[in-house]
Amino acid sequence: MAAATATSNIAVTHRTPQQERLELRRSLSVPNAVRQNRLATKAYLRAAEKGDVKSMRSLAIEAGAELGGIRARNIFGAEPSHILDSSGHLTQYEHKAVKHEFTELPLVINAVESVKALPSRASKSLSKTMSDSDTGSRVTSKWIGSDDTNKTPLQAKMGGTTGRLAKTENNLTRMAATLGAPDHVMHAAKSQPQLLYEHARHSEKSLPALARSLKNEELAVKAVHASPLLLRVDPVKIKRILPALISICGSAAEASYIVAKNPALLDMESPAQLRTALQVVSASISNLKDALWMCSQTTAPPTITVVARQFCRQDVVGEYFRIEGGQFDERPVWCKPATAMAHLGSAAKDVYIVYCDKGVIGGSPSEPCWTFTTNYDRSMKTSEGCDPAVLGWASSDLQSPDQVAEGRWHFPAEAKKDEVPGKWPADAYVDALDGGRERPTWLYSVPSTKLRKSFNMVKESIGLVWTQAGAAASTGPRLLGSITKGDHIHSGSSTTFTDMGGFLNVNGFNYVQLPATLPDDSPPIVLHAWEPVQVLILYRAAPPEPEKEEVEVEEPPAPKAKAKAKAKVEEEEPVEETPPEPGHILTLQEAAFERLPESMPILLPKLSDDPELEPDIFCRNFPRGWFEIPVPLGAGGVPPLVFFRQQVFGMTKSGVPCQVVKPKAQDPMYMPSKAGPKVEGEVPEPAEGEEPAGEKTLTLFSPGELGYKGFLLFRGREEDNRCEESETQLRVECADKLKVAVAWLHMPPEVEPQEGEEEAAAESSQPGSRADSKAAKLAAPPVPDWVHRDGWKEMEVRLPMVVVKPSGEHVPSVHVYGKTLEPGESLSIPGSGSEFLPFFLFKQVGPPRTDPVRSLLMREAALLTVPDNIALLITSMRAHLGDDLAREVFVAGASQIEPIGTGIMSKSTGSGADGGPRAIWPKLCQQGTASDIKAWVFEHKLDTLAAQIKNNTIAARQILTAVGGHNAEVTVPEIEDRCKALVEVLSAPSSEKTGFAGPRFGIAARTDVLLRQPFLITTDSKAFRTALEVLSRYLPLDRAAAELRKKLVLLMQPEELTHLFEMIRAKYSDEFVSLRLVERTQGEWIRWPDMVGKHDHEVLKWLGRVGVEERELACTNRLRSFGAAPHGAAAIAAATGTLPEIPPLLEE
Hints:
By secondary structure, this protein is α+β, with helices and mostly antiparallel strands. Strands 22, 23, 24, 26, 27, 28, 29 and 31 form an eight-stranded antiparallel β-sheet that branches.
């Protein structure tokens, strides 16, 4: 054996047992120095005793340690197998690994020696492969094409190596012979023995195909070393997919790393899927750079494990967790939390693995590197240089530190800690490894349809609007969070967008995709806006009419002179008739939709076929809440195109939403009034030179300083321009931080001017200087009282807003006040009386709000790979939690950043036995199953019920478990409503008439009631109120509530309760029944609760017994009434002379 030859020349010197043990420890720490210590075999035995498989392999292959024989014994004379059997400190897994290593090491040594003896194949073509049967020695192996193809290796024939040993040797040798540098395979086999067992018939074709695609044999061998399954892939798939993967990843090294971690990528049908996925992701978030970053998050390992020699580098050794969304110089960041080094006490700090593209101090500034550092913050994205206080570094420009080769990490030497980092030596035993956590699906391997579906659902869950719950996605409208070129304008339509114009995602536009065919009387679209939105509707133009054939007509004879003059007059005075508005436009105008103002233009999209879109865009702003969008069909019965975006909402006192316009000179200050039906003779014709009535309105002469500073104007109707202070003139809702300004013009109600005064006023009202506006301000009355009371602040403006009256008079603003509106806040502005004419403007003053969808996907990119889980979660949450709570949970989970080290989804729900934190919904969708999602939704339902019973989670779990657990047919709004109804019904006030006062129905009583009868939580609250209403007809309110508390099932049987009392009323009067139910404490009457829900036959029997009881009571009373003195009828008649009324035998 080669190992025996290598160790036979080792000189033996006498050492004491203490010296020998000391050198053994040193040899384990420094395997490279084993040859000098001449203790390779003993170090091998010590490594086997410790379970260090890596050291065993290194000592046996590189240092020549003997695997057996007389020298392969420890100081106690134990052989390797006996040493392993006596190592009780090893785990079962470690024991099995060492035992397997004893069997596998001879195969590895023999195969490595065979490869080492191969000549260089640099001059050979990589397309040639070795034969399955080789008659030559390992050195003189032949290539395919030789006539001798049916013989076994020479050493196997001669008995030198037989059976499995010959097969593994031949597999590795043939694989190595396909490369120009066989050493790569030899070194890979030392740490990946799996290469010995890969069938040579496949590997000798796959490996050269991989090397050619990557254009680097070393990268190909590294990929195979990381994933031997690549040797079983068809070479055709490698050649088809890998070039496209390299172009997307940017380098062959990254492509080989991705393929090694996910060999299933090579099973894709077409490389176009990779490019399509990249285009979809980049179009969804409108940024290619961010799309590439999202991809890198799904390829980077979730955790990194840093290893080193025992008791060395304790500050960097350990498990590092990837910071979700954290990046520095376009690379992910990993962190080892200080809690992992709790034994250091207050000295423990978070340690980060951070990439730096500038190089460390003392090194080359153009050489990027990975570093260990304690100085990092989430807000840091890039830096001008590397951190000078790094703990260690390794030169590499790869995407993750686990791709850095072992021994490339540099740390300060013990004797020279003051050296700059660039001079630090490399530590041969520090390595950054993949932590082994399960990785998400690579983003670009997901079909584009799934990516689009996931993005649309995520955008809807935390976006601007929601559709109705349960609406059919196939037949109803669909919300598209990302609309791009090539998308269909309607579902089922062949027409697509060729250019989105100004309706881009980056501009905040979303799209409502309607079906291609809709009935004429189709209902409006019902949406729920979580923020104020603006809806924009576009229509396709009418198709062009076919050209009529020209028919030649004979010219009539020339008219006479008078006729010519008359025709000339008629030609000079043509009558222009305005064509009526089409029906779909009238429908929109009735719903308060107006044409988009000219001061706020938007470039129209372009379609793939004719006709193009009409130039008019109809828009309307909506506040938060449910709203309806009419969808009248346009020309040719084609549905409209519906877009929406976030917008500030303003509404006047009449309930008409305001237009948001950019103030521009000569623009009208009001929207056109809604025209009513025209009645003949109602409006007189204007005289010659006069303007038609109704067209006189205020126009803007100058927007003033506010307009020049970017303020926008709320434009309402003219009939809402004046309002009393007791009324609300304008209500504003916003989603961003705004500065709202009010500009008051002193315009008291006009008095009809005398003849000649109007012209004089027009001449003297030309726009004056700044002094004129100050004079007008001094002459104007003070602002209304509510201005100072509500915290409005005066704004100093040098240029006032100026409007022009229909008479030509210029009126400047005299007061300008402003108020800041916080995000999500609403503002109600009272009226200003008859002296002032206010105009309202606003401007966004806060920083642009970050897109919550983009922020979420930059942290949780793998969320786009699980559309089915997202759909199940949204459906379950809306069905069980209600829209309000579901939205709250979605928004909170999207903005929540989990602590470092808790990125793996916790199976705990926050209220279980383990008491762990509840997972946020993005993690649940990525890592959970359908049953996990149902359990997670159930826990939120449990929280709501627990809040109703004083946070008694145990009791709440018992109640919901009794009614079906996860399958309980009760929603959160129903739980809240029914608990409220129970309190209302069962805590009726005490009655002064009866003096009965039941126990106070507090939280404890509520818990007891639900534990006694859990199915109350699944019963409609109307049943509770109906049951109380039925009983209150015959019992006082407090007594009725007490009866319901006594027998809770009555709350669930209002119909049966009503039927029972109808049968009782058929025999007795209401007053009689009420008297008996209140007075009786024994007998048949008190058994009425037991009769509820019984068959009519049982009820009739009970009524018979009640009748017998009543007859007995009547007979007793009759006998008492006929008695003598003092109460008998005879005695009373003798005393008064009047016969008293004698009770009948049976009261009716």
